[in-house]
Design a protein that fits this description.
A: alpha+beta; Ubiquitin-like (UB roll); Fumarate Reductase Iron-sulfur Protein, Chain B, domain 2; 3 domains; 5-stranded mixed beta sheet; 14 helices; 7 strands; globular; B: 560 residues; Flavocytochrome C3, Chain A, domain 1; Methane Monooxygenase Hydroxylase, Chain G, domain 1; 7-stranded mixed beta sheet; 16 helices
Amino acid sequence: MAANSETMKVNLKIKRFDPAESGGKTWWQEYEVDIHPDSTVLDSLIEVREQNDGTLALRCACRASICGSCGMKVNGSAKLVCKTRVVDVAPHGEKLIIEPMGNQHVVRDLVVSLDTFFDQINRVEPYLQPSFVPEKGEYTASNESMENLLTSMNCIMCGCCVSDCTVLEVDANFIGPAALAKAWRFTEDPRDAKRSERLEKLNNEDGGIWDCTRCMKCVEVCPKGVAPMDRIMELREDAIMAGNTNTSGYHHTESFYKSVKKNGRLDETRLAIDSAGWTNIPRLLDLAPIGLAAMRRGKLPPVLPHKAEDNQKVKDLYKRVEDED
Amino acid sequence: MYEHDVLIIGGGLAGLRAAVEVTKSEADVAVISKVHPVRSHSNAAQGGINAPLTDRGDDWEGHAFDTIKGSDFLADQDAVEVMSSEAGEAVLELERMGVIFSRGEDGKLGTRAFGGQKVARTFFVGAITGSAILHVLYEQALKLGLNVYEEWFVTKLIVEDGACRGVVAIDLKSGEMHTIKAKAVIMAAGGAGRVFEPSTNALICTGDGLSLAYRAGVPLMDMEMIQYHPTTLARTGILMSEAARGEGGYLLNSSGERFMEKTAPDYMELASRDVVSRAEQTEIDEGRGVDGNVLLDLRHLGRDYIEAKLGYLQEVSVEFLGIDMAEQPVPVRPGMHYIMGGIKTNVDGETIIPGLYAAGECANVSVHGANRLGANSLLDTVVFGRRSGVHAVEYIKNLGGHSSSEDDLEYEKSRIQALLDRPKGERVATIRNDMARGMTKGIGVFRDQNSMEGALENLIDIKSRIGGFSIENKGKVFNTDLMFALELEFMVDCAETVVAGALTRKESRGAHFRTDIKDRDDQNWLKHTLMYKDDGAEHGVRVETSDVTITQWEPVKRVY
């Protein structure tokens, strides 16, 4: 696609939004720019803004994937555009589709409101809460325990994970992947004294750690390797180990475990009831319409559990894993 | 109606550290920044923060001397003494707030070596030290419920009866302009790297704070002192931390020689930055470079070590150049990185205008003089950010109520409307690029009378063109087009003081290396340059000089 050896053409289709018009006006606009073949998507957007259309709004600052300003969707998936090279997303000169991040209110063009993101962060009391402050010197902690936290400290708060979180799409109350990764950073910090309170809250809170559906989207789009979902799974395990067993999340896990161990396969009816809790009448009533709808469509799982024909292999697997523990 | 006791412009390390300090008093404080605080350029500081910890055998005088020698004896020694002696507590305090500094075997803070110092006293978090500290200070701001005007752009300082009384600013999200009244203002708005092209600096580093203070009548000091960092990535100019050399990396020329042996046989790759950058530029200019670069070689450190200690550098190298540092050296070259000059302050952050303080890269205390040591910038921000906070709180105790004038707001509204109403003219970006390339060409690693006069001529042309740019976006909400125009005007102010300072200083000292006058001249030039905005002076700048404060270290020949 090179126009000559020094430059190449990049075609961009950008979703625009102008809030000034009554109710806001959304439209798609296409641009073509000539840039250096090594350029990033951000370079091409800056070229548009500086040489084609000064009205295009986007945030960017460091150009080195550390400030977290330039999260947006490229071809439907959230990316930090300063570290996304054009040749990697459009190797044959394909048109790039650029949109603002998802799950956050659009202010103008590619600029989204930061309120959603930081409101989520604020929910996890995102600061060290030690039991004492040394009068002199520093806290003593192993280097290993500090380096462990780097996974989460690498987070640059770009919002890509929040943008593409499939839970936030349907439940705005979910604390969200970035904030939960931030919470993990404190539960894992040996200097923090509120670990059990934090875990209990994350476990019990509406929109807490059990709302993640493990879709992996946040792991996929995170530009800094924070892998928020992995952090959430660690928080779940830590919460259970800390004695937080009175949640549908825990019952769900336990029921899943027992059902497969006993029958060699999942008893979905029992899983649903176990997860809700046998005495949790309101929650069970919530489930009733789902059950009825499933029945109408012939998708209701059998009320009596089916056993797998050869259950022994599954049992062996359980034994092996449990022996390891 | 917006009013606060103390208003801090900038949400990076200096600004947030000042804010945390002010919240310890009864005073009402707010931070205003054109970006969200966690987007500030403090993020980009990679390698670490210097501190001589006296409880483990280091002495602060050692750090002070290294800093002063690094500054080529232009730093004010009383200021350096303050910074060095307060450094240990400043860093430990960050740890106690939650920064996850790397540790030694004993569980205490660990260090790495850095340039211009024989003692390893640089505390660090991988190669993301700035980001790690910034995020923790922001956590503290959340904990304290700090009031932050996020994405507000300051266009003018309000000075009434000789004292600073607030600002006029645009709320970028609504486009509305407001007065924010304050009894004291702390300028912590960062550097001016974009005055040059290329630069390691973020696109937001446009010298806003320097220019705002300069327009209000405060002198900018030693602006000719521009730091070129020795290791910026080929083509993109992205910073590769000094930590790469601190951890043992080599610099090689095209024949694989460690060329630092010729200029700094004792310190080698860890000589002061100005010294290393000149050595590299000499290799490149004399034909021993590799496509306009030299090579940064980490291969001997091994993959595991590189990934553990310099993970971010590896990430950048792989992603931006496709080079795995464990397998191949990376091409690097000197790149504009930091401005030692800035708003003249004393050790309490005070400027010559009562009620106006400055701290961080926009300020010049002066602790960096003619060349800043790596890992001293973060230290500067927290030490002098804190001190500015303390003294601003003291200052407002004796003050009455807020100013009542809205004159500046009306003036700024009509000034900005006039910019928006201009007929179609030149693009802001075109003028900015021409200015910044001219600055790099004239005020580079090496400079001489000719090149500096070239920069001046270029700037005269730029000044004649800024009256003719136009702003395409006429809307209110998030009008970055307007913001870039206002930033360009700020940058031109900074550029004129850089050129004026450079043409004034008739010697070579630190980063100001003139090929036509190669020696340092302590007899005549152990002096600061002070640039005042003055429409009556030639090119609009009046240059004065003042003596450097010497306490216990007499200038000696600088050898590495």
